[in-house]
Write a structure and sequence with these properties.
Order of helices and strands: HHHHEEEEEEE
CATH superfamily of one domain: Nucleic acid-binding proteins
Strand content: 25-35%
CATH class of one domain: Mainly Beta
Number of helices: 4
Shape: elongated
Low-confidence stretches: 13-20, 27-31
Strand order of the largest sheet: 3-4-5-7-6
Distance between the termini: 115 Å
Number of strands: 7
Structural class: alpha+beta
Helix content: 25-40%
CATH topology of one domain: OB fold (Dihydrolipoamide Acetyltransferase, E2P)
CATH architecture of one domain: Beta Barrel
Amino acid sequence: MTETEENVTEEETPAEAPEAEATPEEPAAAAEPEAPSEPEEELSPKEARKRARSTNAGDARPERSIEERQQERAERRARKAQQRRVYRQRVRERRAAEPKAESPAPVEGKAGGTLKVRQGVVVSDKADKTITVRIDVAHRHRMYKKIVRTSSTLHAHDESNEANIGDTVRVIESRPLSKSKRWRLVEVLERAR
């Protein structure tokens, strides 16, 4: 190429550029109706979020030394421990303020220890001088706070066969009376209807 041709080419290029800039809407508008080559795929909202997150690189954190990371971790743990202490203190205060539910008074045994007392429903009275009592317990799960219900059965000595199926009774710990009997009937609290 000679110098004159180069000048002509340089002059034409800037002249063509303003024309292309002046009418960018016309070619785009003309291209849209022409180019339905590929229909846009329908994405579920979850998939759309996933794609949006994958395109966003985010800001990278600055490089930190091991000591700096350990320091941050120690601070974070101390902060969480403080929050736990405050929360547990509040729970303790709330529990102390609530009136306690009536629990049966512990009975002193001959050996000086307190005997366990349980309340339950009689599920069987078929055996002579023996009743089977179902003890239902409901407590709140420590982590998940859901009410967990459990039940256990035990055999209790009923000397006069006064308890019947469906009665609510109170039983107390005793010495082993048979292979399975370790409890005895104290009183019938409520008769079955």
